[in-house]
Design a protein that fits this description.
Layout lengths: L2 H6 L1 H4 L5 H9 L2 E5 L3 H13 L3 E5 L24 H12 L4 E5 L5 H7 L5 E4 L4 H14 L3 E7 L2 E7 L9 H4 L11 H4 L3 H20 L6 E2 L2 E8 L4 E7 L8 H4 L1
Parallel strand pairs: 1-2, 1-4, 2-3, 4-5
Antiparallel strand pairs: 5-6, 6-8, 7-8, 8-9
Length: 254
């Protein structure tokens, strides 16, 4: 780190759990964020501000006026612009030392097979069940930590899937890939604006813990947890997760 870095990240460095070594790990990291909507809009700026060296943004969509109620990475002037382009502009303005790579497309197997070997942590900020299962399978196959978040109406949840840890349950352990899941969309069900901000920033916090090697992320040697927040009743609960011995994804990969 140079003198400017020492000053910019001084509040992290002052934390004994992070320090210079932890901050350097963050600076050298590459994070993949799939989804530049509500969750990604909250997670990406905190990761860029914290000094993550490279961020890859994947999203096929363009900014719509209805997005601006919660997707804070985008501006009124960004309406009609590709979300990854709008996001790149915001992140680079926030921290010009962060390299932002953009992929204006849906996440598919080919893209994930190309990107995952180059990244350290993946954030699933999507709202599509099939895509979540695909991301989970790919992260398990490449043994990449995955921070998965979801938010709809007033309900949010977050967990960490870390295939490097034997006890870590994967997304398919919790939700079967064979399940005929009915999608719920913000466009029809609505979503409380700060909910996606809360879950997205929690995703950023989990990613930084994994990258910096401090604290106890939601998946560690003691097991996995699913954290759930009911924003309407202001209740936060957690469920301890167990890895399924018959999981069609992670049991075959272990």
């Amino acid at each position: 780190m140079n003198d400017e870095d020492l000053l910019r990240y001084s509040r992290h460095i002052l934390l004994d759990d992070i320090g210079v070594e932890g901050q350097e790990r963050i600076l050298n990291a590459h994070v993949l964020i799939i989804g530049a909507g509500g969750l990604g809009s909250a997670a990406a700026p905190y990761l860029a501000a914290a000094g993550v060296g490279q961020i890859s943004l994947v999203d096929h969509d363009a900014v719509d006026l209805t997005n601006l109620q919660r997707q804070i990475m985008h501006r009124h002037t960004s309406v009609g612009m590709a979300k990854v382009v709008s996001g790149k502009q915001m992140l680079e303005a926030l921290n010009p030392n962060c390299q932002v790579h953009t992929y204006q497309q849906k996440a598919d197997s080919d893209l994930l097979n190309t990107l995952l070997p180059t990244v350290d942590v993946v954030l699933d900020c999507t709202d599509n069940y099939a895509t979540r299962q695909l991301i989970n399978r790919s992260c398990v196959a490449f043994k990449k930590p995955l921070v998965s978040g979801a938010a709809i109406r007033f309900d949010g949840q977050i967990t960490v899937i870390d295939p490097r840890i034997d006890q870590s349950a994967c997304y398919a352990c919790m939700f079967s890939p064979e399940e005929n899941f009915v999608e719920t969309k913000c466009s029809t069900m609505g979503v409380f604006s700060p909910l996606v901000g809360t879950i997205g920033t929690l995703q950023a916090a989990q990613a930084l813990q994994i990258l910096g090697g401090f604290g106890e992320p939601l998946s560690h040697a003691k097991g996995s947890r699913l954290l759930m927040w009911d924003a309407l009743r202001n209740e936060m609960n957690q469920i301890h997760l167990k890895k399924r011995l018959d999981c069609p994804v992670c049991s075959k990969a272990s």
